TrEMBL record:
DNA-binding is among the record's keywords: yes
The entry's keywords: DNA-binding
Residues annotated as domain HTH tetR-type: 5-65
Coiled coil, from the record: none
Stored PROSITE patterns: HTH_TETR_1, HTH_TETR_2
InterPro entries: DNA-bd_HTH_TetR-type_CS, Homeodomain-like_sf, HTH-type_Tx_Regulator, HTH_TetR
Keyword DNA-binding carried by entry: yes
Residues passing through the membrane, by range: none
Name of this protein: TetR/AcrR family transcriptional regulator
Pfam families: TetR_N
Signal sequence, start to end: none
C-alpha cells in the first residue's frame, strides 16, 4: 500500500459506496484504504475520521451539479432561484438515500453540529441572501423579515424536511415538501 494517487474525491466516493453497501458502523478506515490501495496515513491527510468524511460528502458546496446550476440560472425570478438553490441541498439528501441521510444526521447530533446553516463561508450561503433581497426588492417575496433571517429559516426548514423524510423512510417527496414550505415562508403567492 502507498499514499500516492489517493485523492480526497477517491476517499469520498469509496467511503460513501462502502457505507451504502455495508452500513456506516460496519465500515472501517482500514477497509476504505484497502479498497483504494493506500495507507491510513493518506486517509488522515484528508480526513480526521469517518464522521468528517460523511460531513464532507454532504457539505453544501460539494453538492451542486452543473445540471443544478443550469436549472437555477434558467429562471429569472429571484425568489424561485433562491428556492432552487436551497432545493439542491434537499435533492442531494434524497439522492444519497434514507440510510446514509440517517447516518449523516446521527454524526451531526453526536458532534453537536448543525448540518445546514446560513454560513457566509459557503458559496451557496453567500448567494441565497442576495437572491432573497433581490426578490424582496422586486416584490416577489412578501415576508418583511430580513433576507438573512429568511435564509436562516430556509436552512432550518430544509434540515427539518430532510430529517423528517429520513425518519419516515423516504415516504414523501422531500423536494416538493421543502418547496411548499419555502413558498409559505417567503409568501411568494
Amino acid at each position: 500500500m502507498s499514499t500516492r494517487g489517493a485523492t480526497k474525491e477517491a476517499f469520498l466516493s469509496t467511503g460513501i459506496n462502502l457505507f451504502i453497501e455495508h452500513g456506516f458502523d460496519q465500515v472501517t478506515i482500514n477497509q476504505i484504504c484497502k479498497e483504494i490501495n493506500v495507507t491510513k496515513t493518506a486517509f488522515y491527510y484528508y480526513f480526521k475520521s469517518k464522521d468528517e468524511l460523511i460531513s464532507e460528502f454532504f457539505s453544501v458546496d460539494n453538492l451542486i451539479t452543473q445540471d443544478d446550476l443550469l436549472e437555477i440560472l434558467s429562471v429569472s425570478d429571484y425568489a424561485d432561484q433562491a428556492m432552487k438553490v436551497m432545493g439542491t441541498y434537499v435533492k442531494h439528501i434524497v439522492r444519497s438515500g434514507v440510510e446514509l441521510t440517517k447516518e449523516f444526521y446521527r454524526v451531526h447530533l453526536r458532534n453537536e453540529i448543525i448540518p445546514l446553516t446560513k454560513g457566509k463561508s459557503t458559496l451557496l450561503g453567500s448567494i441565497i441572501p442576495i437572491l432573497i433581497q433581490r426578490a424582496k426588492d422586486a416584490g416577489q417575496v412578501k415576508n418583511p423579515a430580513s433576507a438573512e433571517d429568511l435564509h436562516d429559516t430556509m436552512c432550518c426548514i430544509a434540515n427539518g424536511v430532510c430529517l423528517h423524510w429520513a425518519i419516515e423512510g423516504g415516504n414523501f417527496d422531500a423536494l416538493e415538501e421543502s418547496r411548499r414550505r419555502f413558498e409559505n415562508l417567503l409568501i411568494v403567492k
